Amino acid sequence: MHTRYLEDFSVGEKFRTRGMTVDESEIMDFARKYDPQPIHTDVEAAGAGPFEGLIASGFHTACVIFRLWVDLGLMEKSSLGGPGIQDLRWVLPVRPGDTLHGEIEILEARPLKSRLDRGVLRYHTIGYNQRDEAVITFDSASFLKRREAVSA
Amino acid sequence: MHTRYLEDFSVGEKFRTRGMTVDESEIMDFARKYDPQPIHTDVEAAGAGPFEGLIASGFHTACVIFRLWVDLGLMEKSSLGGPGIQDLRWVLPVRPGDTLHGEIEILEARPLKSRLDRGVLRYHTIGYNQRDEAVITFDSASFLKRREAVSA
Questions:
Q1: Which CATH number fits domain A6-145: 3.40.50.1950, 3.30.390.30, 3.40.50.300, 3.10.129.10?
Q2: A56 within 8 A of A19, measured Cβ to Cβ
Q3: With an 8 Å Cβ cutoff, is A81 touching chain B?
Q4: Is the ipTM of this complex over 0.90?
C-alpha cells in the first residue's frame, strides 16, 4: 500500500495485516532483553508455572502487532510520531508457533488547530492468533502530515 | 530486592530502578524488528525528519523501562502475568546515549474475590532521562500471588 496522509483515512475504515509466526527462540530472545521473567525465558519453569508453558511477553505481542501495522506502509512518509496508547489489554497468552495478524479500525482523523501541517489519527488495533482469537487489543494514535498544509 | 507478594506492597510506596543507557545500535536493532520507520532506523533520514535526529521507538522506550522494573526482582516469584496498560504517553523523544531509569508508584494492591490465591497490583510508572525529564508515563497492572491463599 502507499503512504496516506491524514485526509486519506476515513472513520470506520479497516485494515488487515499479514501474519507473522512467533517462535520459541524469538520469544526467549525478546524476553531476555526486555522482560526477563521465567514464564518468558525458561521452558521448564514456564511449564510448571501459571500458563503451563512458555508464553510471549505481552510487550513482545504488542511490538509484533505494531510492526505488522507499520509494514502496511500507510504511514511511511506521513508519520510524525505518536502521543501514546490507551487501554492496552492482553486477552489471551501467545505461545511458541502462534501466527499473529492485526486488524486496525480508524477511530478518528482530526486536523490539529495548533499545527496546521498535521493531525491526529486514532485507531483501534486487535491482534489475533491463527484460531482468530483476539490476543491483544489497544487504542493508539499517530501524528500524521496533512496532504497540504492549510493556511490559517 | 526480594520477591514480594500482594500483601507486601503499600499504596503510595515508590521504587526507583537502576539506569540503562540506550545506544544508537540498540535503537536501530529494536526498530528493524518491531518498528521499522526511518526516524528509528536511518540516521540520515531521521536527521532530516521531524525530530532532527534518530529517536528510539516508543515501544522500545516502554520495553526498556519495563525491563528495569522487572530487574528489581520484586515480582520474581509472585507474578502471574498482567491484564494490560492504561494511558501510556510518550512525553519526550529518547535519543542515542540517553540514560533512562524508572520510578514506580503503587496505586492499588487489591485481593481478587474470584481467585483467592491472587490479587491485582496497579502501579504508575514514569521513565526519566539523565536530565530527570520524564520521557514516558504509563499505568499498568500485574496479577500477584498472595503470601498465603485465603480460605473462602
A1: 3.10.129.10
A2: no
A3: yes
A4: yes
